[in-house]
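Person: At home tonight, work slowly through the protein below, taking as long as you need, and write a paragraph about the fold.
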Amino acid sequence: MPNNLDNLIKKAAKALKRANYAITFTGAGISVESGIPPFRGPTGLWSKYSPTILDLYHFKDFPEESWPTIKEIFYDYWETAKPNPAHYGLAELETKGIIKEIITQNIDNLHQKAGSKRVHEFHGTLKTLTCMECYHNFKYDPILLKKLPASCPDCHGLLKPNFVFFSEAIPEQAKISSIEAIVKVDLILVIGTLGEVMPACQLPYLAKKTNNATIIEINIEESNFTRKITDIFLKGKAGEILPKILNFI
């Protein structure tokens, strides 16, 4: 690891210890190290599948087309995915009282599995499904997906995973909780996101604009944030960098 990165890691650790209210904002990149593929990029899911399968109206009209792909690209990966050192590192920072909250764009529940308590799932979750007819909620069970398209055990209506589809609004409580967190921060740790997904990508900008928050970014490549609002850019894998930050805390 270059000495310059070592120095930046020490600087990031010092900033985190000094912060009054630090939070984390995570994207797909943090879960790639757990074996979950990203959506964008040359090896991303949208290079292999059409985003149409996650359009809400297409899903309603053609569930027999959407559901097998949803199962393949989400649930088949999710059932075997485990938290990586980056997830555990963030949970430890929360335990130490340094990271107060996590806003995640991810739907995989890996932050919670690693032990993080205050997690706002901006794009929803894979953990539950809702019937589009009777609106009953169901905890995920592989049995629900045994026959596709998945149907409600109660009324046989179409089941939809409780994550945000295209043409669908951000869950209200997640949006409110995320904004409440953002307006309190003086430091935001951005991990594994290129800052391309609206409206989530606006949150770090809001933190900078509202409180002139320090932005520490961990990414394997530069993002839309890097040259605009990032104060400390740590280039590399979060699973390697976060344990090194913890060594200085």
Q: What stands out?
A: The mean pLDDT is 94. The radius of gyration is 19 Å. The beta strands are 22-26, 99-104, 119-121, 124-131, 137-139, 159-163, 187-191, 214-219, 232-235.
